[in-house]
Amino acid sequence: MAVVTVMALMGVVVPAAGGAGGEAYAAGDGGSRWAQAWGAAVQQPLEGDVDDVPNWSRQGFRHQSVRQVLRVGVGGDRVRIRLSNRYGKKPLRVDGAVIARSGGGAQAWPGTARKVSFRHAGSTVIPAGGEAVGDPVTLSTSPLENLVVTLYFAGETGPATFHRVGLVGSYRAAGNHLNDVLAKAYRESSQSSYFLSGVDVSGPFRASRNTVVALGDSATDGVGATAEANGRYTDVLGERLIAGRRNLGVVNAGIAGNMLLTSSSCFGEKGIARFRRDVLDRPGVRTVIVELGANDVGANWSTGPCFPSSHKPVSARQITEGYRALIRAAHGRGIKAIGATLVPLSGYPGYPDHAAKVERLRTQVNHWIRTSGAFDAVVDFDKALADPAHPERPRPGYVYEDGLHPNDAGYQAIANAFELSVL
Length: 423
Prior knowledge:
Largest sheet: 7 strands, antiparallel
Distance between the termini: 32 Å
Strand content: 25-35%
Mean pLDDT: 91
Structural class: alpha+beta
Number of strands: 25
Low-confidence stretches: 1-10, 13-20
Radius of gyration: 20 Å
């Protein structure tokens, strides 16, 4: 059993130093390393009407196949999948899994399907709260290539651990259609992902660590970006890295609505609680981008069913102490921590009664991020998005119709604000 160190002040629990962001090397593979090529931050099941994003998490699956599309950030010669039953109330039986190149939509590319085993068995049972890692399969992949992962559930899964704002297709079919090449049976679609928390690739990478994790809220999750267009800032940043011949995978660990210091039934566990699972436990992590705090600020005086009864306003000092706890946890594993300033919030209809207090708190937090020197580097999301004439608001051409979240142009501006050398 690994020794753990507890950062009691903020509740961050991290393994003792020695690992490189989870298992980084491919066992018996002559120096090949694992990098995470795709990942998602899982959350508890939700009704389908939150932010009008339909999903199947509450009902789960029974005698159904679920085919999920994903884009890998880096390529390699072998792949493995990670499945999560983090929020399951009972053991989850997965009766089969297949990974293949995408043929577009729910179609698999002919001749590329690979059956995934779990400890050499064709099925697995994941305990409630647990995770399963598939055995590696030989499948050559290229950077920015789309893959499809298909899971079959013969029995009833119960409510599904999932990620709500996926912005890319997941498809389901009645019965066992693991090995279907054509999409004919997959008649229903969703833009959330289910049980799938990561896809790793292995290869003889030049760097010893090859994974960049973006921990964040909706500005990382991509709310406001065009669906099916790879328009989130993490997607564009990944493209910049590949164009610059930096073979690094960018993993999006954003959860829309997420807060640094407060867990929410709608918006996921607080950042300081999920940091180990969503950052430290991923393979080969070299850098974490911390983009959290905007909802702690914007929803500081909010109440409602998505907020716990214990929710109360927090100060700039409490938020910055939360950042310091994450930085210490990252540094304890040799991971570089990059801080992102909080995006402009004025104009969003959710807090008109507290606009002045929100802006004052946001300004204080951003000043600390920019000037404290606590982060290894800073990327200025605020400056990238702000309207020069009204810096408390986003630039009109960079904002989605809700007045808060970036649109595709805004996410492009954020991605362009990064100096690739700091990653």
